[in-house]
Structures are given as C-alpha cells and as structure tokens.
Amino acid sequence: MLIARTLPDLRAATARLRRHAPALALVPTMGALHDGHGALVAAAVGTGATTVASIFVNPLQFGPSEDLTRYPRDEAGDLAKLEAWGCALAWLPDVAVMYPEGGATTIVPEGPAEGWEGAARPGHFRGVATVVAKLFGQVGAEAAYFGEKDWQQLQVVQRMVADLHLPVIVVGVPTVREADGLALSSRNRYLTEAERTRAPALHRALARAAAALAGGAAAAAVLAAERAGLERDGFAVDYLALVDGPSLRAIAAARAGARLIVAARIGAVRLIDNLAVA
Length: 278
Known about the structure:
Layout: E1 2-4, H1 7-18, E2 24-29, H2 35-46, E3 50-55, H3 75-85, E4 89-91, H4 95-98, H5 117-120, H6 124-139, E5 143-147, H7 151-164, E6 169-173, H8 193-198, H9 201-214, H10 219-232, E7 236-244, E8 258-266, E9 269-276
Helix pairs in contact: 6-7, 9-10
C-alpha cells in the first residue's frame, strides 16, 4: 500500500495507480478505523476500483466545545487495517496541507444541512462540505463511499455534488452494527461498561418506532413514547424525528423514503443513529 502525506506525493501516487487501474474510489475517514470503515473499503474494492482511503481529523467540523483533541487517533493501527482491507493508497494530509495559510474559501451548505446536526453543531456541515470537496479535488476519484450511519452527512454530500456538478458518484453503504444493534462508531470506545450495556436501547427504540410507523401509527405519539423511554434509560435526547430521507425535512407520517433519525447522549458520549421506515 502506498502512503502519501503531501500533495506532490499524492499526485505522483494517483498517477502511478492510474497507469494500471481503470478507476479510483475514495473512502474518506477521520481514522480510528473499525469494521464500519472496513465495509466502506470492501464496497469500493468490490467494484474493482483501485481504492484510496484518506485519514484526516478535520478541525473545521468541530465546534469550540467539542472533542477535537480527544478524538481517537491510531495511525499505525489504521494503516495496518487499510492494507489488510485492500486499500492501494492511504492519503494522510496534515492541517497545513489541507488548510494552507491564506485560505479564504469554504462551502456553506443549506437544504439538508439545516436542522438536526446542523442546529446542534453550528458550522459542522460547513467543515464537512469543505473538507470533502477538497478531498474530491485532491484525489480525483470517480466514486466516493460514505456510511449511512451519518445519514444527514450523506445527504449533504450528495446535495453538494449535485449542486456543484462535481464529477464523482457518492455511494451510501448500510450501517454496520454490533450483534446487539449498536451502530459502530469511533466514539463507542468512550462508553463505560455500564453505558455500553444501555447503549443498544437507541437502536431498539428506532426499530420499535419504525415498525409502528410502517403500520400506520401517528408519528407524534410514537416519537413521544420512544423519547420518554430513552430518557428513562438514561439518555439525554437531542432529537428523535421522522424525516424525509433526502431533504431531512420533518414529516408527520411515514411515506416512501422516510427515515427515523436520533441523537442522544449517554454519559459523556453523544451517539447518532437512523433507520429507514419501510
């Protein structure tokens, strides 16, 4: 596996790969890799594309009170996983490479970026959209792979690509879960033993709500009941909502493309999850 840390090295590496590969695929990550990232790499590698994974903890998407300095980092472990998963190139820029001195341009998304995570974390999606656009331009891949666990982020990136006519196909990959339903996340390692035992209640609440809504139940009553249940289980719920999947607008009843989304804290750890409503 090739490793690049500077733009000249990245350009040389991608040019070398393109001599032998019909297409490049990109898997953007912030490191602290787990099997959810492995599923993204597997989906990309499975198409026959030569796969590039980026590792960059993006300061622009963290708020002043968020966990940038605490965000888990394990470069050696991450590189070993990427190589084992079949990546051809790891792109590891630092902050100076990604945000050179004098930079004055960012992307401020609207539409699906508004509300939910956009409201709870002001500026977050500006950081996401800006860094993802930079990665697309740097790597030049024909396709990029994102997890559905970060559903709103996936919709923001897809909207940005469509609006800016960027020459990349954005592919969503289903959420990977533990056997008890907890969505894999780099932040799960911060859960205490007791919190980890309670954390799967988040997915169970979504599954119950999805079944009730698909059966025709009124959304307001279902969401209120599940929110109350999560709070009894020790969660501080930021939001639990039924939305139109692509636009993230709240809707009052289940329909084609509807999605349940949730964000809640248990102890010091903030978990997000989502589920399609059939």
